[in-house]
Design goal:
This protein has 339 residues and is of the alpha/beta class. The chain folds into two domains: 133 residues, Nucleotidyltransferase, domain 5, CATH 3.30.420; 166 residues, ATPase, nucleotide binding domain (Nucleotidyltransferase, domain 5). It has eleven helices and ten strands. Strands 3-2-1-4-5 form a five-stranded mixed sheet, sandwiched between helices. The chain has a five-stranded mixed sheet with strand order 8-7-6-9-10, sandwiched between helices. Strand 6 and strand 7 form a beta hairpin. Helix 5 packs across helix 6, helix 5 packs antiparallel against helix 8 and helix 6 packs across helix 8. The longest helix has 27 residues. The protein binds 5'-O-[(R)-(carboxyoxy)(hydroxy)phosphoryl]adenosine (KG4) and zinc ion (ZN). The site of 5'-O-[(R)-(carboxyoxy)(hydroxy)phosphoryl]adenosine has 19 residues, from helix 5 and helix 6.
Amino acid sequence: MKPFLVLGIETSCDETAAAVVADGRRILSNVIASQIELHGAYGGVVPELASRRHVELIMPVVEEALREAGVVPADLDAIAATQGPGLVGALLVGVSFAKAFAYAGKKPCVGVHHIEGHIAANYLAHPELEPPFLCLVVSGGHSHLIAVESPTRHRVLGRTRDDAAGEAFDKVARVLGLGYPGGPVVDRIAEAGNAAAFRFPRVQFADAPYDFSFSGLKTSVINVVNQLRQKGEPLPVADLCASFQQAVVEVLTAKAVRAARECGFHTLCLAGGVASNGALRRNLEMETQKNGIRFFVPPPILCTDNAAMIAAMGTIRAKAGYVAGLGLNAEPALTMNLE
Ligand code: KG4
Ligand code: ZN
C-alpha cells in the first residue's frame, strides 16, 4: 500500500527545516538549515533577522527535502507546519508557505504545536512506542512534564514558572563567555569539571511538585561568577558548568521519575533541545531503570528543532481529521489542546 506521505515545515525560531515522513514513523528526508552563525554575534536570536533568513531559505530547503526523499509534490498526502508557539515573524514564513503549497497542490494543510512536535520525535526514533506515556520536554523555550494520554491528547502536569532549562544553559554560558547556543558547550566543558565543586539551589514547590524553576539557579551561578571576578580570581569554568548542569539534571530527573511513579506511567520519554544533554540522558537512564520505568529518548538530531518531528505530529493530526483551512494563522502563544 502507498505510504501516507507528509511534508513537515519548521520555522518557529532559528532553524529553517523541511522533512518528508512516511506513515508518521519513517524519515525519508530531514533537512535543517541552521542560522546559528547569523545570531551568534548577538548572543541570541534576533527575531527580525530570523524571519528574513527564513524567507530566503524556505524554498531551497523544501526543494532539497523533496529531492532527498525522492518524491514530487503530487505524491504528498498533507503539508504540516509549526503553527506556534515561537517568534511570530518566523512562524508566519512557514505557515504562509505551507498554506500556499497546500492550496496550489490541493492538499490538506495541518497546523502543529511545536511542543507536540518535540514529543512526536519519539515516535520516529522508537517504532514500538504508543501512548500512554509521560514526556519531559526541555528546550530553549519550554520545560514541561506532559501526560501523553493518546496520540492527540496532551495534558500538562508541570511546567517551569520562569526560565526554561535551555534558557538557563544559554544564560549561564553567556556569563561565562562561552557563546550561543550555550547548551552544547556547557555539556562538553562540564565533562572535565567537578559537579560537586559548587552547591547550587534545587527548587521545590510544596504545592506543585512537578513545576520547575531555573531562574534562581541561573542567578546563583551569575553571583558566584561575579564574586570570583571581583576578587580577581580565575574562573573554574569546567567546575561551574558541571555543578550548574548537575543541579538542572537532578531536578529534571527527580521530578520526571516522581511524576511517572505517582501518576502510574510505565514509560517516560525525553524530548526537546536539552534532551541532547549527555548527563541528563545518562541520569534518566539510570534512575528509570532503578524504578522499573521504560525510558525513550530520540537521537540528538531529532531532539533539537527539526521538521521530521513536525511531519510526524502532522501525520497524526491529519489522520485524526484536524485539517486547517486557509485561515490557519501563526500563533506565537499557542496553547496545547488541553493546556
Ligand atoms: O528544542 P530546541 O532546538 O529549540 C527550542 O524549541 O527552544 O532547543 C534549543 C535549546 C537551547 O537552549 C540549547 O542551548 C539547548 O536546547 N541545548 C542543550 C544541548 N543542546 C542543545 N542544552 C544542554 N545540553 C545540550 N547538549
Ligand atoms: Zn524546539
